[in-house]
Write the structure tokens for this entry.
Amino acid sequence: MSLVMRKSPIEYFNAAKWIIRRECRYLSNLPEVAENSEVVEDKPPKGRKPRFLNPTLQYRHVYPEFLPDPNPKFRNSLREKLERADMLKRRSQVDIPEFYVGTILAVTIADPHAQGKTNKFVGICIERKGCGLRAEFTLRNVIDHQGIEVRYELYDPTIQNIQVLRLEKRLDDKLFYLRDALPEYCTFPIDMDPEILPEGSPVPVNTVQVKLKPRPWLERWERQELKGVSNIEEHLKEKDRVRRELRKTPWEKFDLMKDYRKTIPIEDQTEIWGEVYNQLQQMRVSRKKMSKQRTFTAPKTQLG
Amino acid sequence: MASSNLKLLCTLLSRIRVENVTIKRNLYQPPKYRPPHWYMPKERVLTDDMVTQDNRDFIDEVRQDKLNLQTAMESPLSKIEPQETVQWNPTTRRVGLIARKIGNYPLWTKSGKKVQTTLLQVVDNHVIKYIPPEEYTPAKDYKPKKVGKYRLGCMLVGSETIDPTTVTKDYCGIFSSVGMLPKRHLCRFHVSPNAQLPTGTPLFATHFRVGDYLDIRAKTIDRGFQGVMKRWGFKGMPASHGVTKTHRRPGNIGAGGEKARVWPGTKMPGHMGNRWRILRGVKILRINTKHNVLWTLGVGIPGETGAMCYLFDTVLPLKKLQTPPPFPTHPPAEDLPLEYYDESIHLFEQPSITFEET
């Protein structure tokens, strides 16, 4: 009896820890890391199923800007509701596709100063941030040996068209290190053709590791635990390695409170996705129909 | 001889009289703070009243009945014929509104420019009472002015109905004397006598129109005791080059000689924020009639998200009302469009902005 008594609290504790971790990972709206998903696929958790199998919760990766800023200073349910309604209205006018950091996009924007009054830019998405109508993303490309970055606002009504040329993810959730990488890693032709993925396939993860130019760098990349960089150790001195060790914060991944402050609670998320799910789903379906029509009509025009 | 002298002195002394005493005082008397007669302390210490569950249920029932009565109450304005309403002229002053700041988000103009807006929600506003100028004595007057000297009357407006058991009896009395339920926020507006409204008139966001300008009065964010760099924007001193212990300090605060003292009004560290401030001339860009929300241009409205603010028609001479607004206020109407937009604002449900080639 005493043995049982002794054992049981530890077991409970472990179980609680497991549940909490699962929940947190499930809730975070940060982009999923590729390795994690692979691990889950290889080893499905035995016995207990994950507690929340709400399919609408998957939308937090596809439409991260629908989740509000978790800072309680700025939260207000009515404002968030009005903002979401405006976002859906804008989405009904322009097709904003699913894309991630690392995806190659072509954006056409109305520009009063451009020739022909429109401006098209192709580039790799190196950052996606902001929530609500403030959501924005940055494209990077190298044109005429000159690195160019353009920041677009996702809900800007001057945007005419957003086209996904190659849908993929990268190993990191921000690709600022491409600024210090060799230019071939972010050079994309302006007249790139879109690559169409087969339907129902998961978003592929590009595991390419870029090579950095020698120092000086714009940031201390060695301290950021980047997975998409191959030759970072070549450029480091002993001093840098020592300082990297000193600056490490290995405890932060166990900081539950920090995780909690960064995320929107499950109850709020189910409410938000329940509100916008139907309309987003309709838009998806209509987009699929449109793309099918396009594939049918394309050969005809060529023949004619 | 000595005794006669003493007698003389005594008679002289007995003649001395104190006619009037003048005491020299400081002539300035600061105005005594007299709270307005409708001011009552609101907060109550909540105690366990040892009420049985049955009685508690009964109180809840009564409260719910009263709330239902008030929500079902028809606006007194709906009975008045439109011909009877008085005409607006530029010198009249209308009542204002109590609103809550609920956040910021961008809108785009038709030329493709992004503008930041602040959202203000008008929450459950009702007219509580009107005090005509003859009876109105403002709080801070040293000498009460003569009757009839005031041009403007005083209108009390409340927002957000609350549970009467959570506030003091005195505060409840202000409302129950006019047959209303207590409100969380109570504010007075100076209005012209012809702009007066009967008790219980609901006020909506449509009281203002799109394109009008507002004055917004609110309390700024309370930042506590702050140094001179944050409070007054001083530059501080260098981080290095031999500077020790004076990186964020003000430096010199005065000269010597005749002026060897700290001059009044010198900018120094101290409490920052939590003061009433008025932002004048804020344009309304969009109005939602269902949720009573106003979108106003700019992010400079004092206070944090969730703070209360008071909205008035602006007094700026170039931005004043030119055409007659809804007067005395907009009557409740069923068939209003859901949203009003300023003509410069791009609607999200409209197709994307394109520019014509010229």
Remarks:
- Chain B has four helices and 13 strands.
